[in-house]
Write a structure and sequence with these properties.
Elements lengths: L1 H20 L16 H16 L4 H13 L3 H14 L2 H4 L10 H10 L4 H12 L6 H13 L3 H8 L9 H13 L3 H14 L4 H13 L3 H14 L9 H7 L5 H13 L3 H14 L4 H14 L2 H14 L4 H13 L3 H14 L4 H13 L3 H14 L4 H13 L3 H14 L4 H16 L5
Helix pairs in contact: 2-3, 3-4, 4-6, 6-7, 7-8, 8-9, 8-10, 9-10, 10-11, 10-12, 11-12, 12-13, 15-16, 16-17, 17-18, 17-19, 18-19, 19-20, 19-21, 20-21, 21-22, 22-23, 23-24, 23-25, 24-25
Length: 444
């Protein structure tokens, strides 16, 4: 009797343990696939089918979560990622040495929660960082979140981890923030200047350095970095993250891929932008705007033949595309094909009369072709379209001086003095204006 009772107890405990550890089979998110574009619905359907085939697979649940993340469904993604984290074999939880990446599921949950619930996201990143041998990007992400919560000592532990590079821009920016929050402004400035030295367009570093310099009683330096921040606009630092790149690679939504490509262009990551734009065209071919963006990305990479081909393909679909004409003209300028560039840029301003950059480049080409009157007309159109264009004011002033019109040139140089008083060309041109004025009409 006692033996039967013991067996019954063991059986009940075994069933309870099994129920506790088994996944909530197919209690995944419900997504209305019929409302989504066909390529998106297909990849989501395939991801769900993978879980149906193997409901105890952490990889299958994780993949489904990643696909949902890729299509901006963070709430649904978390459901799958939690299942993946629960199912990850215990053997992989103590080590990542065999190439397993079990930390991903907590890390991805943190990314899904980052905007909606920062505290919950922080807990996810902490779980991810508990694994041995996690990549530096995980510790850096955690350190940045800890700094946001003013948990400075914990952030420092992550930044001092042996696997975190001591010479990386992202780590340097975090160290600069840490020193700033501790009131060590000299050390903070040291780290921030290192960041700017390697990534000059890093707005976050310049903004913080401006505050550092104010506290170090360097108002001129602070003002200069503040001005540069305004020029950079709202762009924020975006660091390479192979795990989030893997998520983006699963995206099948052209509109979301376009957003990713625009972010990559803003970060000067033109190869990645070009690859993403090609994926957009595979999903939704014959889009002139996308072909123009691809042409621009290829041009910035230095692949002029491919850039020209993409721009001409855009013009074949939309001959009135002003940006396509402009970028094609820019390519022709690089090759010093001035007459061809003039033709392209004239098309650009025909279809977009207030296209300041096209007017400016047209003026530059006409100067090269020794057509000063037409060049003046183009540059005047440029400054009318964009009165704050220092480059157009300077080019026009130089041309007017050469044409014997120093008084007109002086007006444009005054605009430059207001917009960019430190421009190295300004004083030289002001000297030419003064010399011409001293000579008077008889000195022409």
């Amino acid at each position: 009797m006692k033996r039967c009772l013991a067996l019954a107890v063991l059986l009940v405990l075994g069933i309870g343990l099994w129920l506790a550890r088994r996944p909530n089979e197919m209690r995944g998110p419900v997504v209305r696939l019929d409302t989504l574009p066909a390529p998106v619905a297909e990849v989501l359907r395939d991801a769900e089918a993978g879980v149906r085939q193997d409901p105890r697979s952490a990889a299958a649940w994780g993949h489904w979560g990643m696909v949902l993340m890729a299509h901006d469904m963070p709430v649904e993604a978390i459901t799958c990622l939690q299942q993946a984290e629960q199912l990850e074999p215990l053997a992989t939880r103590s080590s990542t040495a065999r190439g397993s990446q079990p930390f991903r599921w907590a890390y991805y949950q943190g990314m899904c929660l980052a905007l909606s619930d920062p505290a919950a996201a922080l807990a996810c990143f902490q779980r991810a960082a508990e694994f041995e041998g996690v990549p530096p990007v995980v510790r850096l992400e955690l350190a940045e979140r800890l700094l946001t919560f003013q948990r400075l000592d914990e952030a420092e532990v992550q930044l001092k981890d042996p696997d975190v590079p001591q010479d990386g821009s992202r780590g340097d920016l975090a160290r600069g923030r840490l020193a700033f929050l501790r009131g060590d402004f000299a050390t903070s400035g040291h780290w921030l200047k290192r960041v700017i030295g390697s990534t000059p367009k890093n707005r976050d570093a310049r903004q913080l350095l401006s505050q550092v310099l104010l506290r170090l009683e360097d108002p001129a330096g602070a003002a200069e970095h503040s001005r540069l921040c305004q020029e950079l606009g709202s762009q924020r630092a975006a660091w390479d993250d192979p795990f989030m790149n893997a998520v983006v690679a699963l995206c099948r939504s052209p509109s979301q891929l376009l957003s990713h490509a625009e972010e990559m262009v803003a970060q000067d990551n033109y190869p990645a932008a070009a690859e993403t734009l090609r994926r957009v065209l595979e999903l939704a071919p014959d889009q002139p705007d996308v072909l123009v963006q691809l042409g621009f990305a290829l041009m910035k990479q230095g692949d002029q033949p491919a850039a020209a081909a993409s721009l001409r393909a855009a013009l074949a679909l939309n001959p009135a595309h002003a940006e396509a004409h402009y970028y094609l003209g820019s390519l022709q300028m690089q090759e010093e094909k001035w007459a061809e560039a003039v033709a392209s840029l004239q098309q650009a301003v025909q279809f977009k009369p207030d296209y300041a950059a096209a007017h400016h480049n047209l003026g530059t080409c006409l100067i090269r072709l020794n057509k000063p009157t037409a060049a003046c007309t183009a540059l005047l159109a440029a400054v009318r379209a964009e009165p704050d264009s220092t480059a157009s004011h300077l080019s026009l002033a130089e041309l007017l001086i050469a044409n014997g019109q120093p008084a007109e040139a002086a007006r444009h140089l005054e605009a430059v003095r207001r917009l960019a008083p430190a421009d190295p060309r300004l004083n030289a041109l002001l000297a030419k204006v003064k010399s011409a004025a001293d000579k008077g009409p008889s000195g022409r």
